[in-house]
Amino acid sequence: MSQRKQVVIIGGGFGGLNAARGLDGADVDITIVDRENHHLFQPLLYQVATSGLSPGAIAVPIRSVVGRQPNTRVVLGEALGVDLTRKEVTLSSGATLRYDWLVVAAGAKTNFFGNEHWAQHTIGLKNLRDAIQIRERVLLAFEAAEQETDDATRKRLLTFVVIGGGPTGVEMAGAISELGRTVLADEYQRIHSSDIRVILVEMATRLLTPFRPDLSASAADQLRELGVELRLGQRVTDVTAAGAVVNGELIPASLVVWASGVQPVSLAQRLGVQLTRRGQVRVDGNCAVLGHPDVFCIGDMAAFIPAGATDALPGLAPVAIQQGRYVARTIRGDLRSMARKPFVYVDKGIMATIGRSRAVVQSGVLTTSGLLAWLAWGFVHIVYLIGFRNRVMVLFEWMWAYVTYKRGTRLVTHLPRGADALPSPHALAPAPGTTGPTSSSPR
Amino acid sequence: MSQRKQVVIIGGGFGGLNAARGLDGADVDITIVDRENHHLFQPLLYQVATSGLSPGAIAVPIRSVVGRQPNTRVVLGEALGVDLTRKEVTLSSGATLRYDWLVVAAGAKTNFFGNEHWAQHTIGLKNLRDAIQIRERVLLAFEAAEQETDDATRKRLLTFVVIGGGPTGVEMAGAISELGRTVLADEYQRIHSSDIRVILVEMATRLLTPFRPDLSASAADQLRELGVELRLGQRVTDVTAAGAVVNGELIPASLVVWASGVQPVSLAQRLGVQLTRRGQVRVDGNCAVLGHPDVFCIGDMAAFIPAGATDALPGLAPVAIQQGRYVARTIRGDLRSMARKPFVYVDKGIMATIGRSRAVVQSGVLTTSGLLAWLAWGFVHIVYLIGFRNRVMVLFEWMWAYVTYKRGTRLVTHLPRGADALPSPHALAPAPGTTGPTSSSPR
Fold it and tell me: Which of A97, A210, A218, B242, CA to CA, is 20 to 30 A from B127?
């Protein structure tokens, strides 16, 4: 057996996968470790949550992307810790992986800012489980509301609260409102568009704070056109089984979506290296952990501060992608004992979508809102998807939804069956056009 | 409010959905009750179980099929029982639905033939939950095998037993073998095609007993070409956590799929009407329950014996579809006080697929096996799918799989995360090209 140098990559997201692909053919053995068997295109996760796309359209097995690279091995498992001195990663299976270079790219998880107990009453949006859970909760809320006779309960069932006015929150609120009003309301005989309430809560006084104020205002207008109620400059003080408490007022809701922020996965703390106040790993100009040039940390886990800047790069897919490619180039350079060049982020701008023909884009090439922004958003997301199959699937689903005003994946498959799955005690109201006690509803 | 006549349909499968669609525009109020929110195209369920299709490609919300019919209402819930005298259906929510005509089309469930306790160690194939569970078990078995160092455990992990040599069993065995050998083996560095064992067990001495013996023989040959091990004329005497006991011999396996038979859902017993030995509801020449002309029973739940025949019609989609349409026509006739005409089944033949370019077809038009049968099978299944979107999705996935030899939906999303999800205690073998104790695997 050879004594080839070992590269261990923790995480098969944008950063890790691009690092592995960038090392295709290099004279190293690569092991990529992930807790999931698939790479997830997170920017479109909210469309899985709102019945627009199948999980299979935005996820692709890590193995099918890099499994045929002869120097790359994929391991399903969780990295529990790293021994920086012995250069070993310990997995949850008890096994260890020795490395010459380590790429830590394990991403972020939902941040409840110290209110972890809220997690049982609200759902974040970080993985397919979250998205499918949100999808089923929304669909079951409509089913229950259709059968509900008590007005207050019915109102609660059709109220959805989204916490956090960043891109994820804006996209979720817009998509839930559109799903409810445009797609679902028509198919339920007792639900009218006006019965549906979608409330977006943001602590700051405007949405999408990284964007220019005029784009934030445009996003707010576009959301209001879709019927979303904005609560700007308001604070969530509690989340319970009944709903969310906003500025002291309980908003009864059938679903509270948590889109308020993320934090690095807990592996960051177990590395034993210097973290920022937000819990990210401090890295140098080469994306390497301070004092450990053989350990890279990239993507959402890392705080990379560009030369001359004061803030770290944001947690965006393009940052992770560019860093992944950079790390691969740097390791190739190390193999030939070349001096490392610093990482330079090429900022291509930011964008967020709100709904059909609605979006905002802010970049060097184009800064706009509305239809043009929406088309640009769609184009960029198709291009960044991994694989021909996923591109075709997503494009087809989008065109089909655009033409038919329908959503393709309104399935409830994982919650308990039938009536037991309905989120509240409910009674069945009389069928349309029937009268008399025989069709009435005992509670 | 009007006093329109009420039609209650229990079940949104092929029978119920076709009955509801056939009554579009008729002067009745229709309520369709189902435990699931979606109609499922069961003939392709095995492709969801083997990562070929997304759940969303073969399921469509019942509401989106009939929800915009003005006279039709969809209720998510379970029918607990029927009062044939008061003409009322009781739902699990406690509500009741009065009917003038009742269509019972609730389908079938997995039949363990008195060994219900086997259910905890084997998975049937009746709904999307079953299919997703099988998919994840197969994929996780491969992940675990890739990391396993103990030979016996590894062998067990890569052994899959399918019980039942009818169309479902033949399709499952062929598809698992093909998935393992053609798609997966290439992407795992430590798994070779020859490590994978797929065993199909059938009590009868030939597969596909409803087919002509030469087609059964052809199916057996085609399965063997795909590497499936056939155990014909053998009996399963136990199913445990370790595997299946066949003719007294324990076959250690990571997954046992139960495709051995179905029985009507338990609602059949609660109707209080005459059942056959197999538990099906006896119906007359009008698909009506004996003595209850206002209660139709169709599809897998019903035993319809054609005039002059001795056997009931088989549990096939075309039977349910034709009966659903017939019931709609009959109710329309009843509304105009016309005499009922008997139901006549138009037998278009039977078909089963085995794998890429492999199938058997037996019908009036065509009786053949191999490529031509496979193309005919594909054509018929695309045509019978409900909705343009599903047809395009399935067609695209098939063409993509045909060209790339890949499968599009190899996702594990619902089992516990990462290493905890692996089906057996396992250790991680050394990475390729590494040596020495630092990369070894403590157990």
Answer: B242
